[in-house]
Amino acid sequence: MWLCLAITAVLGGTILHKLKTPGQLGKKVVYLAGLWGGACLLSLSLFGGLIFLALSCFLIYNYFSGQALLPVDQKAVLITGSDSGIGHALCKYLDEVGFTVFAAVLNENGSGAEELRRTCSRRLSVLQLDITDPEQIKEAHSKVVEKVQNRGLWAVINNAGIIGFPADGELIPMTEYKRCMAVNFFGAVEVTKAFLPLLRKSKGRLVNVSSMAGGVPMEMLAAYGSSKAALTMFSAIMRQELSKWGVKVSVIQPGGFKTNISGTSDMWDKLEKNILDHLSPDVQQDYGQDYILKLRNFLRFLNMHSKSDMSPVLLDIWHAVSAEHPFAFYAPGRGSYLFLCLASFFPAGIIDYCLKKMPKFGKTMPSALIKPN
Ligand SMILES: NC(=O)c1ccc[n+]([C@@H]2O[C@H](COP(=O)([O-])OP(=O)(O)OC[C@H]3O[C@@H](n4cnc5c(N)ncnc54)[C@H](OP(=O)(O)O)[C@@H]3O)[C@@H](O)[C@H]2O)c1
Ligand SMILES: *[C@@H]1O[C@H](CO)[C@@H](O)[C@H](O)[C@H]1NC(C)=O
Ligand SMILES: *[C@@H]1O[C@H](CO)[C@@H](O)[C@H](O)[C@H]1NC(C)=O
Ligand SMILES: *[C@@H]1O[C@H](CO)[C@@H](O)[C@H](O)[C@H]1NC(C)=O
């Protein structure tokens, strides 16, 4: 038994130490090693131990074969929402390792676009692309076709996204639900449809940046979470349909990175006014002005509990783009993998309980629920 445990520890430790793999892979190895150690402990017999040893070796071998990365070879990739945050960092990263990057930005005259032009190699081109505007999609498509000629486009990374104004589902205005859907879902669908012919030709990669909130029900995120859940499901169906064309599809479900997605106070002012303008007087009275004005703390809270080091997402997306056999799902970020597992495999009561126990952004209750003392 001790021998088994020792081998597990050494094996797991070495693999983790040696391989700078994307988070997902590292985690799987840890779980496998843990599983194996536990099984060895339970079995307590040489025979059982040997069986588990063989089994784990087989599983680990299976994970690592086909994890080889394809050569970069100046392959062309398109990234939407490159103005800031994950998309911006990803452009710089993929440019640095040698890809030909098409950085699609919401504002070609903005500071993000300017910085990409200034700091990246000459392979990188900045494209104007509001993913909710069909005209701009067409224009970006013809520019990409013209630039790549017959080298083809290897990958499209649907990254552009908005979070909207987090609030109770009852308070979020319809305009806000529709805006989230327009960017996070229909935008990604339309971009994908436009570029799929190029991807089918290259047997390339499609990567959608969804969110942990697309798989884990989280309070205040009714509009955002639903749009991301739609994206996640669509991607899973595309994965099945596109496999016959040789196109591999991956979904990234990050959780908790410090980016501009949490917006500025100007933006919050506008969205808050939008909510107040659309509420009927009795709903407004039930929730109370005080409650509604404190909603903006949620974004501040999210940002405070987020990590500023984006390398786990970048590594995972890089893996999805370059690995011979990329995974269908990646969950970089603190707790993302754990929460997604909880939400997928356990009774609803468990995830509800866990989320209730998490630190809260405020103890404010709707005024109709506060008992007069
Ligand atoms: N940060 C996290 O913790 C986290 C967690 C889960 C999922 N995600 C997802 O990761 C992706 C990237 O988010 P981020 O955190 O990097 O946020 P971000 O800094 O706000 O980046 C999103 C980018 O999308 C752009 N964009 C917004 N609307 C667009 C449109 N209609 N057309 C084209 N581009 C548009 C934004 O442009 P502007 O800057 O000009 O607005 C911005 O550059 C999003 O899909 C988000 O849902 C993030
Ligand atoms: C947020 O946007 C500002 C300017 O719009 C930019 O300077 C900053 O780098 C962005 N932050 C991130 C994390 O992308
Ligand atoms: C960027 O600036 C150019 C030239 O001033 C202008 O034609 C273009 O419409 C601007 N683009 C955006 C998205 O504002
Ligand atoms: C991304 O989602 C869109 C629809 O939302 C879908 O058309 C596309 O195939 C998906 N791509 C990937 C890589 O998941």
TrEMBL record:
Matches recorded under InterPro entries: KR_dom, NAD(P)-bd_dom_sf, Sc_DH/Rdtase_CS, SDR_fam
UniProt entry tagged with the keyword Transcription regulation: no
Keyword list, A-Z: Membrane, Oxidoreductase, Transmembrane, Transmembrane helix
Ketoreductase domain boundaries: 75-260
Bilayer-crossing regions: 34-61, 337-355
A Pfam short name: adh_short
Signal peptide start and end residues: none
Family: Belongs to the short-chain dehydrogenases/reductases (SDR) family.
Entry protein name: 17-beta-hydroxysteroid dehydrogenase type 2
Protein source organism: Erinaceus europaeus
